[in-house]
Amino acid sequence: MDPPDLPVGLVLGDTRSMAWQEVLRTLAAPQPGPAGEGAATGVLGLQLELRELTPHTRERWNGPTSRRVTAVRGAAGRGRAAGGPPAAGTVPAGAGAGGGPATGMIRLGARPVLRTARGWARGNLTWSNVAHMRHRLDLDVEQHRWFCQLGAFHRAAGPAVPGTDLDWVHLDDFTNPVLWDLLVQARELGVELVGSGAGADVRLAGRADLDLDVVQEARGVVVRARLRIDGAPAPVAHAHAIGTHGVYVVDLTRPNRVVLAPAARTWSAQQLVLLGAGTEGGRGLADVLAGGLVVPPDAAGELVEEHLPALLAGLDVVSADRTVVLPPPAPPTLVLTVRHRPPHTVDLSWRWDGHARSAPAPDPRTLLPADLRAVLGWPDAVTDDTGTPALPGPATLRDEDAAELVTTTLPRLKGLPGVRVETVGTAPDFRRLDGPPVLSVTTYETQKHDWFDLGVSVHVDGRAVPFAPLFAALAGGKRRLLLVDGTYLRLDHPVLAPLAALIAEARDLAEWETGPRISRHQTSLWSDLVAVADEAVAAPTWEAMLADVAQGSPRATPLPRGLRATLRPYQREGFDWLASLWRHRTGGILADDMGLGKTLQCLALVQHTVEERAVDGQGALGPRRPFLVVAPTSVVPGWVAEAARFTPGLRVRRLRATEASGGVRVADAAAEADLVVTSYALLRLDADAYRDVARGTGWAGLVLDEAQQVKNATSLVHAAARDLEVPFTLAVTGTPMENSLTELHALLALTVPGLFPSARGFVEQYVRPVEGVRTGITAGPGGGEDVGADVARVRTERLARLRRRVRPFLLRRTKELVAADLPAKQEQTLTVELTPAHREVYDRYLQRERAKLFGLIDDLDRQRFIVYRSLTLLRMLALDPALIDPALGGSRSAKLDTLLEQLEDVVAEGHRALVFSQFTSYLAIVGDALREAGVPFVQLDGSTVRREEVLEEFRTGAAPVFLISLKAGGTGLNLTEADYVFLLDPWWNPASEQQAVDRTHRIGQQRTVMVYRMVAAGTIEEKVVALQARKAALVDAVIDDGDLFSSALTADEVRALLA
After folding, report:
1. Considering all CA atoms of the chain, what is the largest pairwise distance in Å, rounded to the nearest integer?
2. In the list 80, 663, 1006, 1056, which could disulfide-bond 657, CB 3.0-4.6 Å?
3. Which residues pair with 1028 in a beta bridge?
4. What angle do CA 604, 606, 611 make, to 5 degrees?
5. What tens digit of pLDDT does each residue of 708-753 get?
6. How far apart are the C-alpha atoms of 699 and 1014, rounded to whole Å?
7. Could you tell me the sign of the dihedral formed by the alpha carbons of 868, 873, 876, 877, in that order?
8. What is the DSSP letter of 139?
9. CA dist list (Å): 500 to 134, 406, 525
């Protein structure tokens, strides 16, 4: 393998010919700089100089704006600058924390200088042109970059003040504490700090501390300001603040001697006064305290009890010789400033009042109860950059939140010890409505068949709440509603919860342009509204549907005279349920287990509608129109045969081909039929023709058999079914969902549109809360680990709501519950050990695929095809290596030998068997082995042409073994002649296997059904079986009463399959 590209400038030559020691020594050696850079000749320095600001005046408008200070005279060095006007008592002093220059002020100026043969020179080098002088002066790259950064940070403090000297920057005004990092870096880069004039000395120290020292002397108690630089005393009277983060000290006899040091921590306002900053009298106070303020002995008590506690709020106060016992710092007060702005806005800001710098900062969370902190939006933990508890930043509350603050939160705050509330401005006259909402709801008929207008009125404390702002607040998820007169109410009351849920779904339906509406399918929402409303009045047709459908006990409907079958009790209940749906023209999902006679129940309904219309003639029920049944191609003949058997009076037309290929026109078939049967493929290809019939004479209803075929809402066949304008749609499937709730939503969108919001809204309200975290519910097979109570609670609540909403429109019965006379089904797993040669091949490929996939699993959505390809490869290898490479075959696999042994015994005893596999190539290997063994068989897969002949050959017993592709024969077949089922390769979706088994374990079976799952030991097949334990609970979570919900194959599940 070629070595990777090396960095520019690292020249190793041919590393193949170098000893490893030489490679490492070369790497460790100092490396040359960037390509093209030689040694620079220009060396920069930073010149520091004490300068007096001389701003322009009317008489002197064009002279220099600052000048160098060469000497300072007067008491304590505070006379006047040499050559300048008399200085005020505040000279020299800095401008404080970032303030602009003041008249007559002395500042510490800085500018770039260049080293020459004669020493340091300014030349024409200034802050305004240093950025452009690198190449002209051949400057060092890193030094040049450093000067550009220093200038940029200074400019960022604020705009330049007119009349200032742009050749200099004044460190007094440098507000950013990054200055000290830059000065340390300057030393590392060789940028010297230089003074001006003979004997100049500029020194960078490490730390500055400033405090008040209180000591007992004979003359009284002396309070003295104390400055220490790197622990050594320094004269406070000669010190000046650099922003709020540092200090410089000037030798008053030689102003070109300066020491700079960063503050141990940010200067307080009082400390800035000690450094001569701030007000005009600040320097005078500094001078007094620098020399020592004497408190008479008889006033010592007053000093300790009254004055020192106040000083502790902003200064570090010590007694260096411990001659004075200092008082403990007074407890600070947490101050909330509330500023009112019209119309309903409140600004909040927090600060400490009386907080002592010498004491640890208190944790503000200890002063406020947790519920108040939550209301005020405090984070759980607030700390500053040192990890010390700090106050939250400013916040702004508006409208309802401001009203709640003024009426509820502030009164509580004002009663807390250690907390003070200061109000600026006048608070509006907010008033909270505390009474329970009085809700009245009414439904009214509309011209739209599926919708009712919903009348809603809400009263609180006798006051009517306008619906428009109430609707907007509920739709926006607000917790409170503020009315125009300043009154407000809380919206989290249980009475308003069902109304909020209705509005949440209506947002996506976009059905409320002219007012609130409710879908005729939203029966559970109406029940929720009725449960909390003080008055509820339903439209007559709505009331009738609620009594018939939503209550779970539809009234009995006479069986049609033309039905030639005796219905079992559960089938009779199913017919009554279907008839009630038809009566109210609302669709549903018939989700009985496979083999319980769903087709018969549907035919009974069609026969009932035909006879009902015949009695009515051309009256209220309108003209005679046919039902359209759509089913998989393999299932279409079964519908025709069962219709001829059970409802011979129906006129049935089967469509076999598209109109373009010469098939019967859809309109012609519909004109002469009571029942038109077609396939999903033909519906998709001739979608326009079926839609034209719907818009013309019309379909009486639509039946979607094996409706999992339309579980993908984005597919063309789903779109074709959705575009059919029919008054009644019924989905028939034993597996209404296999992998995700979105599949159930796709079916409900066809059968009961309006029951749920749009697909996007359904995902937000149900799919994400339920499927987002699989763990959290441990009951049932495949249960996960516990998660937070909130996640589990939301998940359980959404599942319960989903079941309640779906229940009136979905009917599901299992064989265990309703078919007590159905023979038993015994299931057994046959574990097969791989042969040594087979094991060696499987393990080798497993390691290769595992290494390839572990880097892709985390991006499963984009790499799904590659991941599934590798998993499929391992599944095929577990069956027989010859499936991926004939050269690896060698001899027959152990699984095939075991299958042949089983089939020989089954056939010899007169039984018949179904053999399923996902892989038609493996069925071909099985077929070759059966042929060699002399066992008659037939095979059904996607390539089978004479399908009905194959089925007949098996049913008559000519071929006792039926090899079936799981995809081609897993649905729609009735093969009760078989009583043995062999599943050769497990699939991670257990519903597919169950559908295969139910080809024989169904109504009409007279013998016990034996099911054998053949699993190769120590392979991916064992992991797939374990995964099935979780997937098997998919339907139970929503359709039945299980507690676990499982989603589609995830990254963690893929890792488990490869483990």
Report:
1. 128
2. 663
3. none
4. 95
5. 899 998 899 999 999 998 999 999 998 888 778 889 989 998 998 8
6. 47
7. negative
8. B
9. 67, 26, 10
